[in-house]
Design goal:
The complex is a heterotrimer.
Chain A (H helix, E strand, L loop, with lengths): L5 H8 L7 H23 L5 H20 L7 H22 L2
Chain B lengths: L11 E2 L11 E2 L2 H29 L10 H35 L8 H9 L1 H14 L12 H4 L3 H29 L12 H33 L12 H35 L6 H14 L18 H10 L1 H15 L8 H24 L1 H7 L3 H31 L5 H27 L14 H31 L68
Parallel strand pairs in B: 1-2
Helix pairs in contact in B: 1-2, 1-3, 1-16, 2-4, 2-6, 2-8, 2-14, 3-6, 4-6, 6-7, 7-8, 7-9, 8-9, 8-11, 8-12, 8-14, 9-11, 12-14, 12-15, 14-15, 15-16
Chain C lengths: L21 H30 L10 H26 L3 H31 L9 H32 L9 H26 L1
Helix pairs in contact in C: 1-4, 1-5, 2-3, 2-5, 3-4, 4-5
């Protein structure tokens, strides 16, 4: 980074465009709804159960990360710091599950 | 408040001018750096004594000096102490001292966290020594279960000690990353900062990503030992390979934690004593990052003979060979640096040059080990012991000494005696090679590691190795004597005894408590040898101007 | 500290810094370490779960834990609302939302401890009794420890609030605490799914 990205510089300087309380409450409602859905899905059996559950929990996690933790509104570097380790997490978990 | 005043007089202070300043919770990075260096060096001596015990036992095939569980305890603590209480904290200490100075900062980003990181080494070190006293940590520094689940109490204390030490390194790494990325002087872009800063940044990334995994593995070990969890014990349905995977996921990148700062030091020392700019700055900087990332993709090469899925050995063999490339890039860049240079053979430089050749030898034996067909035969033999000591001693320790001889004048204001330095170097170089080179042969001929007796055909090689180790032990004496005597009566160093580039050399030796009175300005690459005049101390004709009454926001020179 | 100076044109911004706040950068790096820690523990849990009989998690109380999950999500909402409050300078509201965070967080931990006591004393699930148990107790207790540390941190933040340390211009410590707490919530979201529901 020999120069400061103008978009990044602006983000650092402008008053925070963080979500309002209303957004937070909407996200909360979505989280609760997804949790209830998950519990219902957990009662079914079948091949779709795992991907559905994992998908829903991933969406819940993303909602918290993007809105509550402001990743959607902050510098992209924070997102990089948080998500880059996932690249390592996947081989770690995969390897430890192989016979 | 003058630039040189220590702040505070109680148990929390900032700045080191009196002896007592170094024994309390001091938030000055220079004090903390010295605290780290002195503590880690003490553990170097302890780990060295343990090594001498091992070599004494192995001088003869059926010696009875130290045997059985006690021998295993000694070798476990030798490895653990050298890795976690000597090399890693020693580099952390040197980096702590030098990095803020190099980037023009007045301290690290989080000075209190910095002090906390150091002080966590005290319970960590005490618990580690307690585990030695109590006995029981007998499973090697690699602590493989099922053995490590059933060993006596000391193993649990060992694991808890490592947790403390792990926290210490993680806090340090976060501090280094924020400092390096956020606290350079305004005119210093990332490609204008010294290569040691790149090296420490890469090291810190590895620490942040890898150490927590070790912590998780240790937690599982503690749960297994204390609460009977069957994570790793086949009898209970568990999986020993789970430990090995989690352990090596950290411990392989850990070896890059132990070498990258050394690479950074070499990149600082070689230009200074070749009077030439570094060759391939960007190559060295980016290859450091490449090593940090790739280092996470090779771990199972420690497990080729573990019974892991045979097919998986192939990708790990490939990645383990690829990882030699970025290091090779560095070696050639360093050779390009000294090529055609006006070499000055100070002790620092001789250690740095020896580093290059010794580390290449260690790297070559590493390539052998990366190859599965060869590793199957030499895994768990002295070939591995030779490899690891060539890279860790011939590599890391020699680089560390190059750095110590280089920055000692800056830290203490005194020069180390060069003749004693040469004695230290040559005794070390000879002793080191005599100790570890024969071990390549012993391993190739089939001598296993972690044994306290061996077949008589290995006697000559072991005797040679033991004699070499005694030479190594003697070698440290001139250094200790030199350091202590120079502290008291060494020649006064002045700000820039090596006539080196680097912001640290524009300050007095030692620097003022609060470092730079005004933020310095840099105007180009950090190794301007032969291209620009050497920066003198602030305010002198050759140096940057003294602080102006009203400095401008984007001050020029 | 090291904020980009808006009075200087962008192309002349200092290159010696990222412009990101030190403390914020620091906490995100710390969260990266936490990602790796929980990944290791989850890897251990999944390995253990796959080696034991299936259906081992049927001893767990899904309705109670679903309720507990809701409790933790509520606590996250409280933290988010507390940040919104101090952005508008409403320090009393900040304090109140943080107190609610403490309440919800404390409830979560209490229910967890209640669950542990029930499972262990009845012998239904113990760290030594089954592989699933080993994995379960290891990863959830580390999570619980993080909640506990979060409660202490929350209390400290409340004390700082009452000492008047925060204003719309300076509330980074609240944000930093919030980031930690939300992360602990995310870990639970994942654990609830892979331990209890799958």
């Amino acid at each position: 980074m020999n120069h400061v990205d103008p978009v990044e510089a602006e983000k650092a300087v402008k008053p925070h465009r963080y979500p309002t309380s209303r957004t937070y409450i909407l996200v909360f409602v979505a989280l609760v709804a997804l949790t209830i859905l998950e519990v219902i899905v957990a009662l079914i059996e079948g091949g779709l159960k795992a991907p559905l559950l994992l998908g829903m929990s991933a969406i819940k996690a993303l909602l918290v990360i993007l809105f509550f933790m402001h990743l959607k509104y902050d510098s992209r570097w924070f997102a990089f710091i948080f998500f880059a380790p996932m690249a390592l997490v996947i081989p770690l978990i995969w390897i430890s599950l192989i016979r | 408040m003058t630039a040189d005043a220590v702040v505070g007089t109680g148990l929390i202070r900032h700045g080191g001018r009196k002896f007592s300043d170094y024994f309390i919770f001091n938030t000055d990075h220079k004090v903390i750096g010295i605290q780290y260096l002195v503590l880690s060096f003490t553990f170097f001596l302890i780990g060295g004594v343990l090594a001498e015990l091992i070599r004494t036992q192995l001088a003869l095939p059926t010696n009875q000096v130290i045997v059985g569980s006690r021998y295993n305890l000694v070798l476990t603590l030798h490895g653990t102490i050298m890795i976690f209480l000597w090399i890693i904290p020693a580099f952390a200490g040197l980096a702590n001292y030098v990095i803020p100075l190099m980037i023009g900062a007045n301290d690290m980003a989080f000075p209190k966290l910095n002090a906390l990181a150091f002080w966590l080494l005290i319970p960590g070190g005490l618990l580690m020594m307690a585990s030695f006293a109590v006995g029981g940590a007998e499973s090697g520094w690699t602590a493989y279960p099922p053995l490590s689940v059933t060993t006596p109490l000391g193993q649990t204390i060992w694991a808890i000690a490592l947790q403390f030490i792990g926290f210490s390194t993680i806090f340090g790494a976060i501090n280094f990353l924020v400092t390096i990325f956020n606290m350079r002087v305004p005119s210093m872009g990332l490609t204008q900062m010294p290569l040691l800063a790149w090296a420490v940044a890469a090291t810190s990334i590895i620490i942040v990503l890898g150490t927590p995994v070790l912590s998780g593995a240790l937690l599982m070990l503690i749960m297994s030992r204390v609460l009977g969890a069957q994570f790793f014990t086949p009898a209970g349905g568990g999986n020993p390979l789970l430990w090995q995977n989690l352990f090596w996921f950290y411990s392989h990148p850990a070896v890059y934690i132990m070498i990258l700062p050394g690479f950074g030091i070499i990149s600082e020392v070689l230009p200074a004593f070749s009077r030439k700019p570094i060759f391939g700055y960007k190559l060295i900087a980016f290859s450091s990052m490449a090593i940090a990332i790739f280092g996470f993709l090779v771990w199972a090469h420690h497990m080729f003979t573990s019974g892991m899925d045979p097919f998986l050995r192939v990708p790990f063999m490939i990645t383990s060979m690829i990882i030699a490339v970025p290091t090779g890039v560095k070696i050639f860049s360093w050779l390009g640096t000294i090529w055609g240079g006006k070499l000055r053979f100070t002790t620092s430089m001789t250690f740095a040059l020896a580093f290059i050749s010794m580390f290449v030898i260690g790297g070559l034996s590493g390539i052998f080990l990366a190859s599965v067909p060869i590793d199957i035969h030499v895994q768990d033999t002295y070939f591995v012991v030779a490899h690891l000591h060539y890279v860790l001693f011939g590599g890391s320790v020699m680089a560390l000494f190059a750095g110590v001889y280089y920055w000692f004048p800056k830290i203490t204001g005194r020069m180390l005696d060069e003749r004693l330095g040469q004695v230290h170097f040559w005794l070390t170089f000879l002793g080191f090679n005599l100790t570890f080179f024969p071990q390549h042969l012993a391993g190739l001929q089939g001598m296993p590691r972690r044994v306290f007796t061996y077949a008589p055909e290995f006697t000559a090689l072991n005797l040679m190795s033991t004699l070499g180790s005694f030479l190594l032990a003697i070698a440290i004496l001139p250094f200790l004597f030199n350091a202590l005597r120079s502290l008291a009566r060494g020649k006064v160093a002045g700000p820039n005894p090596w006539r080196a580039f680097g912001l640290e050399w524009t300050l007095s030796s030692p620097p003022p408590v609060h470092n730079f009175p005004t933020p310095p300005v840099v105007d180009g690459d950090p190794y301007g040898y032969g291209e620009r005049p050497i920066p003198g101390p602030v305010g002198t004709p050759a140096g940057p101007p003294a602080p102006a009454p009203a400095p401008s926001a984007s001050g020029g020179n | 500290m090291s904020e980009v100076n808006s009075a200087v044109p962008v192309h002349e911004q200092p290159i010696g810094t990222t412009g990101l706040d030190n403390r914020k950068l620091g906490i995100w790096l710390f969260l990266a370490t936490e990602v790796m820690l929980f990944s290791a523990l989850i890897a251990g849990f999944l390995d253990m779960r796959s080696r034991g009989p299936s259906g081992a998690n049927h001893v767990l109380n899904i309705p109670l834990t679903a309720f507990n999950t809701w409790v933790l999500i509520c606590s996250s909402l409280m933290v988010a609302l507390s940040v919104a409050a101090i952005e508008q300078g409403k320090t009393k509201r900040l304090r109140n939302y943080l107190l609610l965070t403490l309440l919800f967080g404390g409830t979560f931990l209490s229910i967890q401890i209640f669950e542990y006591i029930h499972l262990i004393s009845s012998g239904e699930l113990t760290p030594w009794g089954s592989l699933f148990g080993a994995g379960f107790y290891t990863v959830t207790s580390v999570h619980g420890l993080h909640v506990f540390i979060g409660l202490i941190w929350c209390t400290l933040t409340i004390i700082w609030t009452m000492q008047g340390k925060f204003s719309p211009k300076e509330f980074m410590r609240v944000e930093v605490f919030g980031l930690y707490w939300h992360f602990v919530d995310i870990v639970w979201i994942i654990l609830f799914t892979i331990i209890y529901l799958l």
